[in-house]
User: What shape does this take?
Amino acid sequence: MRVFVRLLSTLLGLALAAAGVLLALEVAWQWWRPQDAPLLVPWPSWRDALEGTGWDSTTVRVVAIIVAVAGLVLLFTASAARRRDVRLTDPAPGVTVTTSPRSLARVVGQHVRAQENVTSASVTASARKIRVRATSTLESEQELRPRLAESVSGLVGDLPLVRRPKVSVVVDSPRDRR
Amino acid sequence: MSKTASVKAIARSYGAERSLTFVTGLVALLAGAAVLVLGFGWLGTFRAQRPVLDPEVVDWIHAQQPVMLRVAAIVLGLVLLVFGLWLAVRSLRPEHKPDMALDRTQGHGLTVTAAALAGAVQSDAEAVDGVTRARVRSVGDDEDPALRLHVWLREGTDLRRVWQDLDTHVLARARTALGVEKLPVAMQIELGSSERKRVR
Assistant: This one.
């Protein structure tokens, strides 16, 4: 997402620059030699078309919808391009330590899979919350869940995280379906 | 609270790019919505039927000083050009890697290049037990440079011990070698990475 925002802002910058050049050129040209206008952009025909189009015409509505949706997409892209680093406590003044949510999830996943009776596990993590989904063919959710939650909390508590994320554990076991 | 140098060194700032994309998106959304509101006649059915290029607006423009309007339009165009180019260049420019100037005296200048600094700290960091890979680069501006370390740790490594080692050996050594009191550092640690295996 961050690379995409960088690309978008480059394109936006180029579009603004091009629009600025065309505006300045057309105005200056029309001022200097009115009989030879337009220079590059066929603005007189655009003007005539706009004079004949009402605000309630379908074209205007369609264009407005497209512009609004594109604006919404830009808003979402800009908001999604933030960094999701997980801060660790500073070991010394002037040193800032972070880790990625992915590696936090990897550590928790390795830990959960090493537990007894866990068949498989998937983990998603952020600085605020760690979600564990484990499957077990041998133990029911009632038995396994408290044990897993406790051991994951212990593991996370051992890491020097700035804020302790909430841990939620879901166990999927065929024993519960009988 | 302003960000400290080490917090700023975590990653390249995307503040300008993100806010600009955000503002453009907001303007587009509001403009589209406003045109739809106008077109559906919620501001009056008669107003919705008027042409987009309203004759009243055209008359008003014709009543203005033509020289003023033209100069204003040309200036606006030039401002847009400069701003757009600045934005494009800023977004495309790679992040600056500052050299570290140890002595700025005229004729006695002493500079450690960014590559030399990064290479030295990187080999020090990779020598720490438990570190599989390290990437180091200098960031920030020439006046006060900072270091960005990206460190991959082997599975099951004790994080606190590695920290201690990195701080006492690697960073302290860099500080003494460069003779600086403080050297802001941002460390990104990847936990539990397995060593890359080559398929034969």
